[in-house]
Automatic annotation (TrEMBL):
Family stated for the protein in its record: Belongs to the thiolase-like superfamily. FabH family.
Lineage: Bacteria, Bacillati, Actinomycetota, Actinomycetes, Kitasatosporales
Documented EC number(s): 2.3.1.180
Pfam families associated with the record: ACP_syn_III, ACP_syn_III_C
CDD domains: KAS_III
Organism whose genome encodes this protein: Kitasatospora setae (strain ATCC 33774 / DSM 43861 / JCM 3304 / KCC A-0304 / NBRC 14216 / KM-6054)
Record key words, sorted: Acyltransferase, Cytoplasm, Fatty acid biosynthesis, Fatty acid metabolism, Lipid biosynthesis, Lipid metabolism, Transferase
UniProt-recorded name of the protein: Putative 3-oxoacyl-[acyl-carrier-protein] synthase III
Chain positions covered by the region annotation Disordered: 1-31
Domain Beta-ketoacyl-[acyl-carrier-protein] synthase III C-terminal as annotated: residue spans: 273-362
Statement: the UniProt record of this protein carries the keyword Magnesium: no
Amino acid sequence: MGAPGTANDLANDLADDPADGPADDPGTLRAPGVLRAAAPVAGARILGVGGYRPTRVVGNEEVAGPIDSSDEWIRRRSGIAARRFAGPDESLVTMAAAAAVKALAHAGVAPENVDTLLLATMSHLEQSPPAAPRVAHLVGATHAGAVDLGAACAGFCHALALADGLVRSGHSRYVVVVGAERMSDLIDPADRGTAFLFGDGAGAVVVGPAARPGIGPVVWGADGSRPGAIAHAHGWRDLRSADPPPWPTLRMEGPAVFRWAVETVPRVGREALAAAGVAPEDLAAFVPHQANLRIVDAAADALKLPASVAVARDVVDTGNTSAASVPLALERLLSEGAAGPGGLALLVGFGAGLSFAGQVVELP
């Protein structure tokens, strides 16, 4: 063969050279110096959903005292009435594994057939080892690649986009995507800006091949000029240098984040709908990150969703579970019958970074 030319030139060269493989089998064609690629598939879709909510329910009365507040103030500010806090035996890893097991059962996929497990989390307290390999081990996905992903509250939608790409490109047949958090480990009970917002839990989906696309194009982005809008009050350097070392609790610029979210979520939602070729009236459900009920309702109003669209309001009794909130809310809508198989759902994650990601999916 001569020097490399266009893709068509290469294809013609390969077709003329039987030593490189039969021309009617693209999976075996390989020119010298050209790597063989995985065979792509027509589409990917969510095959199953699962969730795990800790046993302990924490009402507003319990969190109101240390911040000199009240149930009425918390409800008015956030719409939250209760949240779940994990107990000593409910680690981030075990909650993630429980959600993944349920998602696999819903999908009808055996754990040993999982090729990749992606875990979106911001509350895993150990820098090393990552949590995903332990989750894969507990699930029984012993041959899977397992990776932690950090995009805070937008992490699940980022991971879902990566899973879609892995399946459609042929690199993985089945991918488990988990969002799991123990936000109670990062709460300062006396911080009036965050103590009442967060909760714990895990949600998961299984993504696999489909005859047509079931996950729309992702719309994502970030604004790295505002890293302090949602951040740890102390970093690793503080833990090493301060005496006594401080705990890395979360701090948030609440009003600024609220203004950013009510502008960003509708914009991302509209762009994701357009990218998927879907109109608001085509939707069965809207599942934004469950940060705050006021943000959820403002986004739904701005998108001009018809009354037929089920809007996830899981935040009311689950709180803000960061990367777990979208899959947990999705699982709830399906389990309660508010949305059904084959319907279309708009997902939008947003949070620290500042970062965001959204896509339209077909429900399992």
